[in-house]
Amino acid sequence: RLLIVDFGSQVTQLIARRLRELNVYCEIHPYQNVTDAFLAAFAPRAVIFSGGPDSVTRAGSPRPPQSVYALGVPILGICYGQQVMMQDLGGRVEAGEHATAEFGRAYVEQTGKDDDFLFGWFLEGREQVWMSHGDHVAEIAPGFQVLGTSPGAPFAITADPARRFYAVQFHPEVHHTPNGRTLYENFIRLAGFRGDWTMGAYREEAIAKIRTQVGDGKVICGLSGGVDSSVAAVLIHEAIGDQLTCVFVDHGLLRQNEAAEVVAMFRDHYNIPLIHADESDLFLGALDGVSDPEVKRKTIGKLFIDVFQKHAAEVGGAEFLAQGTLYPDVIESVSFSGGPSVTIKSHHNVGGLPEKMGLKLVEPLRELFKDEVRALGHELGLPASFIGRHPFPGPGLAIRCPGEITREKLEILRKADAVYIDQIRRHGLYDEIWQAFVALLPVRTVGVMGDGRTYDYACALRAVTSVDGMTADYYPFSHDFLSETATRIINEVKGINRVTYDITSKPPGTIEWE
Ligand code: XMP
C-alpha cells in the first residue's frame, strides 16, 4: 500500500483519487501522525508527500521523519513536498517573493531523461501543468537531476532515479495538469504496484472502519432518498446491522411516488429499520403564504432540524449520527466559506445538529467523490436506476414552485415533472443530463383547447449538463423532443396550458429557479 503524507494541501484528496482510479490502495495521514514507529508499522511500498501551505524555510515547519528516506521505497514529492525533499536531502529552498511565486497554468519543457518516470510524457515537447507555489527550490539536492523546467520553476521536475526519489513543483493531481495521471501511473509502476485494488476492497475497509468507530453503539442516519445518504445507509447497515436506524423526513415536497419508493427500498428490500416521518402538514402549514425564496429555504431548514431531532429521539440511546458527506462538501466548506456553496448546503449538512444532540459523526463517504460513491453504490447492489438519479435539492419542490406554494400547485408540478422525466428516459437522454425538472410558474395564461378557452398555469422545463453543479449549460433538446413533450404535458396534466423551455446557463442563472 501507498502512504500519502499530508502537509495540508487543499488537493491532497485528489492525489488519493488519482491512485484509486489506477486501482492502487493508499491512505492519507497527516504529517504529525507519521512517526518513525508509524512508518515501520505501515511499511509503505511507496510514499507521496503532498503540497501544503507552510514554508520549509520557517523553523518548525512540517517535516516527515528522516527515516522515510531510508525505507528504500520510491518517494514522490509534490510542491511543498518537493521543497521538503530538497531541504531534507541537502538542497536549498528560498522563501517566495512576488517575482518567483507562480500560480496557475504553466508549461514544462523536458530538459533531462528518465524514461521510467517521464514515460508517456512530453508527447508534444511540452506539457501543461498547474503551479501554485510561493517558495521555490534554489538548489537541488545531491544525486538529483533536472528533468523538466518551466519559466517560473527551473526545477519543475527533478529525479534521483538511483534512489527512486522524484519531486515536482506543480500539481499533477489536478484537472489543469491534463496528463498528470501519466506521472502517477509511472510512479506506481516504478513502485511495483499491480493495480488490482477495487471498490470491493474499499467497501470491506470502510465496513471495518465503521465497526471500529461505532462498536456496539447506536447510529441514526438521516435518509433523504438521494444517492449519498442512501449509499451511506446501506454501507453502515452492512457494517452494523440493526444498530442503525434511518430517519426519513417527508416534508411533502418530494416528487411523484418518491416517499413510497424510498420506504419500499430501505424498509422492505434492505430491511433497514426506518422511521418514515410524514410531516407534510407541518411543513406545508409553515410555508403557507410564504413566497420569498430565502424565507422558504430557511423555514424548511429550521423545521427539518426540529423534526429530525424529534424523531431521532425515538430511537433512544443513539450515540452517532451518520451523514453522506462527500469530499467536495468537505473542501467547499473549508475553502469557500461565505461563498454560494454554503447556502447550497444549508439544508443538508444539518450544521450544528450533532453538537446540539450530543452525537458523534459517522461519515463513511468523506473521502469519496460523487462518481466513486456511485461506484460504491453499484458495488453494494443498489439498482442502477437509483444510483444514476439526478440530484434533488433538500428544499425539494418548494424551490421549483416560485411564489406561494399550495397543495394544488404541488400536485400539478409533480404530474408535469413525471411526464417530462418519462419523456427524457424514453428518448434515452437521462444519463446525458445532469439534472432535469419542471418549474411551475406563478402565472396563468390564456389558451384554447378544443373549442374552449383555458386559463391555466405556465411551466418551464429545465435541463442542464454540468460536471459538478457549479457551472451548467442548458441541454440542446431537438425541436421534435420539445414539441412532443409540450404536447404530452398539456394533454396529460390538468392545470397547465403553456410550456416553455429555459435556455439560461449557469452563470448567470442558477440551476434551480429559487
Ligand atoms: P443552483 O440552483 O444553486 O444549484 O445552481 C446547484 C445544485 O445544487 C442543488 N441545490 C441544493 N441541494 N440543498 C441541496 O441539497 C439545497 O438547498 C439546494 N439548492 C440547490 C441543485 O439542485 C443543483 O444540483
TrEMBL record:
Alphabetized UniProt keyword annotations: ATP-binding, Glutamine amidotransferase, GMP biosynthesis, Ligase, Nucleotide-binding, Purine biosynthesis
Top-level class of the enzyme under EC nomenclature: ligase
One Pfam family recorded for the sequence: NAD_synthase
InterPro entries named in the record: Class_I_gatase-like, GATASE, GMP_synth_C, GMP_synth_GATase, GMP_synthase, GMPS_ATP_PPase_dom, NAD/GMP_synthase, Rossmann-like_a/b/a_fold
Pathway the protein takes part in: Purine metabolism; GMP biosynthesis; GMP from XMP (L-Gln route): step 1/1
Alphabetical list of PROSITE patterns matching this protein: GATASE_TYPE_1, GMPS_ATP_PPASE
This protein's GO CC annotations: cytosol
Every GMPS ATP-PPase domain range: 197-389
Single annotated GO MF: GMP synthase activity
Catalytic activity reported: XMP + L-glutamine + ATP + H2O = GMP + L-glutamate + AMP + diphosphate + 2 H(+)
Enzyme active site: C79, H171, E173
CDD domains: GATase1_GMP_Synthase, GMP_synthase_C
Annotated positions binding ATP: S224, G225, G226, V227, D228, S229, S230
EC code(s) of this entry: 6.3.5.2
HAMAP family xrefs: GMP_synthase (MF_00344)
Protein function: Catalyzes the synthesis of GMP from XMP.
Quaternary structure and partners: Homodimer.
Protein name, UniProt field: GMP synthase [glutamine-hydrolyzing]
Native source species: Rhodovulum strictum
